[in-house]
Structure formats: C-alpha cells, structure tokens
Specification:
single chain; mainly alpha; globular
Length: about 260
C-alpha cells in the first residue's frame, strides 16, 4: 500500500460518510410528523452536524480529486501542476464528472449556510443525492459501455441512497428523541408515529441497499467461486454482506420487537 493509495481510500470513505449522513439528515424532516419535525429542527446539534457535514463534504470532495490525480500521475508534485489538473479534468473520461462533483459540493455548503426552512432541506437532499450517485462516474462504472453503465449506475444509486437514508436517518432519530428540546416523554402519540414512519423508511432503505448490491454483484459476475473467494473484491464483498446481515437483524428487532 502506497501513501497515495491510502490517501485516496481515506478521502473516498470520508466523502461517502459525510454525504450519506447529510442526505439522510436532510431527508428526515421531509417524512416525519409535524410535531417531531419541530423538535428536530429546534436542536442545535442538528444544525451543527449539518454544517460539519457540509464542510467535510467540501473538503473530502477536493481531497479525493487530488488523491486521484496523484495516484494516476504517480507523483505528488502533480497537485501543484496546473497542466496536470487541466489534463485530469478535461482530457479524461471522468474529468467532467469531477467538475460536476466540485460544483455540487460547493452548492451543498452554500445551501446549508445560506438558507433555512423546508425548501433548504429539499435542496440538500437533491444535491447530496447527486453527489452520492456521481461517485459511480469516477470509478469503474465510467469504463463500462453505455447500456451497462446506466444499469450499474442505477444499482449504485439504490445502494448509496438507501445507505444514506438509513445512516443519516438514525442520526436524526437520535437527535429528535434526545436533548433539551426533544419530543417530550408525555407525547407518546407523536413518538409512536415518528418511530413507525422511520421504521418504514428504514425498511425501504435496507431493501434498496440489498437490491442495488445484488445488481452490482451480477454486473461483476460475482457468483463465480474465483471472484468470491480468490479476489480482494470478493473478500470485501463478504464483509459488506456480513454488515448487511447485521442491518437486517437490527431492522427486524426494531420493527417486530422494540416497536
């Protein structure tokens, strides 16, 4: 493992966590009951996390692009080379995707800092969804032929949007149910309706993650023993499957036991 590769992996994962969290947190007030929405929006923690998430999204988007450039060039000095950047952005098949990603990251940060209200959350949902889906265009999907590319992009969209709705929704649920201005314990009906709605969205999110993942596996031909057991991709897939099983157990326990 080289330093360039480690930086690339770290930037990519930080970007995914930040953008997925923003997507789920901005989506949360659009589907919860009115009373729960008020408790959520009144929390300073929510506002602080949105700002931190926007800053991390912006920083990690540009860090990922820089790490990708260095990894491709094989030389850290490429970061300060204007011609290397121009070639990276405008002479490669994925360069325009990086231009679009940078614009989306900037727009997310400006929206979080500059606007309030339900329309702002809807805008962050749309922008962060675009940024999540665009991750497919700067990976192996960009090298696929047109029909397969759009099919795998759709699968990737289901996968990452489901993950964002689940992950960011969990953060938002914790914020709405805890803290000095959270839903009061006496407001049982509001709390029950909030949990029912979140549970329904959570089940849909887990289903989207599984469906998207299965389509991606088929596209990779991952049902061959060689791909599953003799490659790093297959071993990473095994870890992801184990995590999804854990998600299913948590979702089932919440839906059929705790609720």
């Amino acid at each position: 493992m080289t330093g360039e590769w480690i930086a690339l992996v770290f930037a990519r994962w930080l970007n995914f966590v930040a953008v997925a969290g923003l997507f789920g947190m901005a989506l949360f007030p659009l589907y919860v009951p009115e009373a729960a929405r008020g408790a959520y929006l009144a929390q300073r923690t929510m506002r602080s996390l949105m700002i931190v998430g926007g800053a991390l999204t912006l920083a990690s988007t540009f860090a990922w692009a820089g790490a990708a450039l260095v990894n491709m060039a094989g030389d850290g000095s490429a970061l300060w080379d204007r011609s290397a950047w121009l070639s990276f952005l405008f002479d490669t098949s994925f360069g325009l995707a990086w231009v679009a990603r940078g614009a989306l990251a900037i727009a997310i940060m400006l929206t979080i800092c500059g606007t309030r209200g339900r329309s702002a959350f809807a805008a962050v949902v749309a922008l962060s969804a675009g940024l999540l889906i665009s991750q497919a265009w700067v990976g192996h999907v960009a090298s696929l032929a047109a029909p397969a590319r759009w099919g795998v992009t759709l699968a990737y969209a289901l996968h990452v949007l489901g993950a964002g709705a689940w992950f960011g929704g969990l953060l938002s649920l914790a914020i709405a149910m805890k803290g000095p201005r959270a839903i009061a314990a006496s407001e049982r009906k509001t709390a029950e309706e909030l949990l029912v709605r979140f549970s329904s969205v959570g089940l849909a999110a887990v289903a989207a993650i599984i469906i998207g993942g299965l389509i991606n596996m088929l596209a990779h031909g991952a049902f061959t023993p060689e791909m599953l057991f003799a490659s790093s991709w297959g071993r990473a897939l095994a870890v992801k499957v184990a995590l999804v099983v854990g998600m299913l157990l948590l979702a089932g326990a919440n839906r059929f036991i705790l609720m």
